[in-house]
Write a structure and sequence with these properties.
about 120 residues; alpha+beta; N-acetyltransferase; 5 strands
């Protein structure tokens, strides 16, 4: 049975902590990702800075799936999330049952870390 034009393969979500990337991969192609940094203080946390979905893949829930997986990963690992990425911050506001709010102290620590190394942004 062939794939209809509206059906898309479900992406696999792959966390690469060393690279600070959570990738959505379908048919061996990266179709989206969240770039994040890891914080140790004031508490252990993931701080997403960018969410990107490749052209032609927008509007299919990939960014939402990535944000959900980032929060799920943090939850499994006992980490907080300090969303600097506007998309992830908006996703968290829409899903308070799945995304605990970050303290202002944690958000500021993430902003300072990015300011110290703009390549993270």
């Amino acid at each position: 049975m062939s794939e209809s034009p509206t059906e898309r393969p479900v992406p696999e979500l792959i966390d690469d902590r060393t690279a600070g990337m959570l990738r959505a991969v379908a048919e061996d192609e990266v179709i989206g990702h969240i770039q994040y940094l890891v914080l140790e203080t004031p508490q252990a946390a993931l701080a997403p800075v960018h969410t990107i979905v490749e052209p032609g893949h927008e509007g299919h829930g990939i960014a939402s799936a990535l944000a959900a997986e980032l929060y799920a990963t943090a939850g499994r690992e006992g980490l907080a999330v300090a969303p600097l990425c506007p998309y992830v911050a908006q996703w968290a506001q829409r899903h308070p049952d799945r995304a605990a709010p970050a303290s202002e102290e944690l958000l500021e620590a993430a902003r300072v870390k990015v300011a110290e190394d703009p390549s993270l942004w």
